[in-house]
Task: structure prediction
Amino acid sequence: MLNWVHMCAPVISVIQEEISNGELHEILDLVESRSFSQLRNELVDMNPADIAEEMALIEEDKALIVVFRLLPKEQAAEVFSYLEPEDQQRIVEGISDKELASIVNDMFVDDAADFTEEMPANIVRRVLATADPETRKAINQILKYPDNSAGSLMTTELLRLKGEWNVAAAIQYVRHTCDELASITYAFVTDESRHLTGVVSMKDVLAAKDDQLISEIMDDDVIYAKTLDDQAEVAETFKKYDIVSMPVVDGEDRLVGLITIDDVVDVIEEETTEDIYKMAAMAPIEDSYMSTSVFTLARKRVVWLLVLMISATFTGLIITKFESMLTAVAILTSFIPMLMDTCGNAGSQASVSVIRALVLGEVKFSSMLKVIWKEFRVSIIVGLCVAIVNFLRIIVFYYMGMYQLEAGQNIYLIAGVVSATLVLAVICAKFVGCTLPLLADKCKLDPALMASPMITTIVDAVSLLVYFGIASIVLL
Amino acid sequence: MLNWVHMCAPVISVIQEEISNGELHEILDLVESRSFSQLRNELVDMNPADIAEEMALIEEDKALIVVFRLLPKEQAAEVFSYLEPEDQQRIVEGISDKELASIVNDMFVDDAADFTEEMPANIVRRVLATADPETRKAINQILKYPDNSAGSLMTTELLRLKGEWNVAAAIQYVRHTCDELASITYAFVTDESRHLTGVVSMKDVLAAKDDQLISEIMDDDVIYAKTLDDQAEVAETFKKYDIVSMPVVDGEDRLVGLITIDDVVDVIEEETTEDIYKMAAMAPIEDSYMSTSVFTLARKRVVWLLVLMISATFTGLIITKFESMLTAVAILTSFIPMLMDTCGNAGSQASVSVIRALVLGEVKFSSMLKVIWKEFRVSIIVGLCVAIVNFLRIIVFYYMGMYQLEAGQNIYLIAGVVSATLVLAVICAKFVGCTLPLLADKCKLDPALMASPMITTIVDAVSLLVYFGIASIVLL
Result:
């Protein structure tokens, strides 16, 4: 109970709301009243993510640049990293080359590469021309990898130690260089040709004795990615081994970068969004919903809609075949939407459960028989419940005068036909729903494509065939 | 292109498959042939997550215990943490109290608490009785917080520093104590009454000069959670601020624990699964799909199925109302499934896009008008495309002899009615689809409940009303 109450009134948001609501208006007010020194004092105490969130709300470009220039130098690059590409572009277009260079050189290299990737060509040229040579080289290195690859996700600022160093020397080295690095939680050991030979956590380095060698305390069984590995695979490995960072090697097994878990969290969100879009019969979009154009949204949606529409015409042809029966027993038509929807939903439930279990690695194609047996038992329970309730509902509606029968027709018989159809069609729907995603996975297709819309279309046809089959036996 | 080819042939899996396929059979073989010393050598070189994955495949309890006992002492607790609750229970039931105590004391406290929580009462008693007093206290502390709260997610093994220490002293302290800690990436500073006063990254500690005080280099603007905060809120904060660990304070603002990002990744997965289940009209399940009983699965699914079935009967009543028209122009019936499916899918596309954008914080209720305007334009493009294709399809099918018309009926007029319905109903469907999730969110309901099944049910009725409305004007 406590938990439930708490979900409705989250306490953590207090900190955020204080900043977002209270200080937000103050910032806009301070810009308008040109109280810049007060604004500067406000900004120093705020979290960069919050500053970025509020700067995105400033509509006038000039005001945005003013606020950005008020940021303390050490915060500017960090705030900039948190901004959306649109706002980054607005700022870059308003600042000098010198200011741009200072931001790019101060950003983490992976953030700088992400930002560069989103900019139009003229800004990319300006960024690369103004960045210092080392940064330029690192950005170019990351940019050359394909989108969604491990290489495009990594940063090059990682901690390298030598196996022959002792712990005291390693700690000294870390203390002198760590200011430049994205993360020092793990250090990586390479040989003369920069091949990855081991990994050691900073915790283990600090816990070891001064005269121990790094090669003695490192772990030589390193979990790593290759630059061209797909980011979804990388995220899977992070989850499987519960790791927080992973080294990346190039085609010749040389250590070139490091992927940290905060970037992996973004990948997981991205991949989930893609799955959810596919499950709702849409091609995934690359940007956020609001920043995707109307035309792109339409294009991503219309293809599947057309495919499913054409498939649905076959369901219509089934109805055409049984037209004479529907004319004879007109009331049968009125149960079609309920049958289609209920069986579609029952099938979707099974398919979505299996698709999610596949994504989470809980089921595999080899467990297909177990899954079918499970869904079969579930479908009998669910089908019977739905059928009984439906039988009673039809009888009640009939006695309330909502259905008109013609001479010689028996409402109990009709209700029986509809309910029997429900049980059988729900069983079929769950069977189709649980097997198709597994088969798709086996055929190296994305199981998410076998979610609700596809299942609904197939199950519609199945349930109508069952319906007309039973009706022709019982009623004609 | 490279990217696409690459997605189909992930390279990273090579490492995993080598272990999973190759070594797996070897382990089972080695158990069967009782080659225990060779097995022990194999195990030493394997990753704990892989060992756990393969131990789960050993069906015989005795063999499982044998393999577990062969693990080097320092690996046993880690492998145990990776096992599923079922397998943990099988092991606990086969080992001595002394062995159990050693595992529990070696595990990270949050893992030990997670494990204890999943066990039956008799095992919980054994665990708490055998654990050393400090571990027992820590486990009990975590167990007292409600499921899904920040308190239940945290570990108590965090690095505490004093503000008045200088950097040299702090590093000495870390080197002596870090063996016991879950993470040293961030250190937390508290006052005498254990109130949280600051945070400092180990990177900043190492980068600072020996004689600087911790209070000088720490950041006193700490992002923290309270023990009773909901885990979904905590995950949101991690994502917003791109952080990797977050301190947890109790009701009196005293520092009691630390949440690390690997646990947050699990929370994100869990919350996403809940969303996806709700979007497919199912109550979320607590365990994995395979370990949830048939009866529980049926219970989680039947409620929504019944609700949606009852709602769908209203669609049926609309058909009953227009029965005379359907008898007069029988061909109209055959387009009902296509209209229902297409409009249902069009509505789902909009609702799922908006639900996901809400979850990711990309849209808010306040942007409702913008969203409606966007979906309106999308629906006109999509509706027209679908209508045109459908018009042509009906004409083609007619000339192929698949539809029979009665005297006085005109196929162009009928195709026109169906296509006009498609345009109007798709516009309505997208409107309903994009507004309902936003309204639900505003009313503090879960927007995920407004996904495909709910939208389909509403849109069915709307599209039939539009259909019969247009048909009565044009055809009668």
User: Anything to note?
Assistant: The longest helix of chain A spans residues 368-399. The two ends of chain A are 56 Å apart (CA to CA). Chain A touches chain B through 141 residues (CB under 8 Å). Confidence is low (pLDDT under 50) at residues 1-23 of chain A.
